[in-house]
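#structure-requests
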Amino acid sequence: MSDQLRDFARRHKQVQRKHRRLAQGYVTKLDRHGVIRHVPRRDYGGVLAMPLAILVLAFFGFKAMLMSGLSPQDYQMHLDALAQGNLAEKVGARLMSRDPLTELLVGLWRSIG
């Protein structure tokens, strides 16, 4: 009797876990036997957020390194030259322009090195 009760508790726990996952959202799929099944929806939000955050931080870090390596006048001269170019260069000049976050990172970079 103890084995039957343990087996029932295990199956009951599996059903509860499946219901909790389905309550978060599901997709209806047809399996290979033609049976309609409800499958929990996968969450891709966390998978994409981390690489995107790393990319943004790397961009601002690169920008801060460039700004700390050049004098403000030289950096502005390079930006002005970019702003005179084609559309891609104008977009690059806008992205590489000074902003408060980059100024903060430049201050931190200069204090370290």
